[in-house]
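Supplementary notes for students who missed Thursday's class. We covered one full example, reproduced here. Read the sequence, then the structure, then the short commentary at the end.
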Amino acid sequence: MVQHRRGDRRTLLSGRVLLSVGTAAAAVAGLTAVALGVGDSDAPQDEPSAPPAVARADCAKQGKVPGSGSTAQQNAMKRWIKEYERSCPGVRIAYNPLGSGAGVNQFMRDYTTFGGTDGALKPDDVDRSREACPGGRAIDLPMVGGPIAVGYNLTGVDDLVLDAPALARIFDSRIRQWDDPAIQKLNPGVSLPSLPIRPVHRSDDSGTTQNFNAYLAGAAPAQWPYPVEKSWQGRGGSSANGSDGVVSEVTSTSGAIGYFELSFASARRIDTVRIDTGASHPVEASTTTASAGIAAADVVGKGKDLTLKFDYSTSAEGAYPIVLVTYEIVCDRGNDKELLPALKSFLAYTASEEGQKILPEIHYAPLPENVAAQVREVVAALS
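Structure (token representation):
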């Protein structure tokens, strides 16, 4: 196999096509197998009536930048790419939503210029990245957030309140009936049916599951003594592949409850749980309350890494505690010099006020400004 460095990534992006992990190596050897990424037209997407999202002075002149990873951010990436390329027609960005694990692997193997992951890199990943980032290392840049909604299918109940201990016991099959006293106590005056609870979780490894596991472990450690992994950890219940699969199970099964990004609940008009956090009022899942939840996080990354640590037990007013942040993985140093201007220009836009303010329109939560400002500072210093 022909060896290649980060500079050779531009050869893997042709006609807005980004290769999967399994086919990229074959492509380097001269074989052809492709998977389309987000944004699959070389023609600029002109919208003359709309103001430019990026000032011309902030555009790179040219470049084809490949990325892949988290499916949670794919709709945000699609919108960002559309707006950026309309303003900066000399640049092409391709994003292939293969999942967080694949995004990390493709980045580590030098197949992409940036990756997207719903969980920050582990120490082993950082060590691996030193080969992919000559003279540097991979860092995590939080870019887009959102609430993980807990949706349910319960006829006659359109307002349901649960807390972390109750959720942990429900998803661990230790609360089995909807009229259980623990649920009734959280919902005084609500007529709960004597119906079996049917919890649904993801069958595939996912960042959404990892973040939901993290919330249960952080907010209800006595009830959820499991490790925080991308694979499901609780007992019992049924499983489905992807958020689409969980949504299908919940909407088709009376008494079902599951977790997925808010955009899925909004699109399918699924009732969602309000969370009793100890604040004066239970908190509903929304882009506004998720942003407040993200604002309670601390930056714990070292150097230019901006990994966030969430306070899952927060009782701050209006702060939704079950949140997910997708990170863009980039090299702090050792980036391809030809692609670096386009990479920095695009990421500067996504972290900008203009890039962040469109997120609520598509059910994502903008970064708190103090975090977004740090991201912009780091992006400007990439080399």
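Commentary. The chain has a mean pLDDT of 87. Residues 74-87 form the longest helix (14 residues). If anything here is unclear, bring it to office hours.
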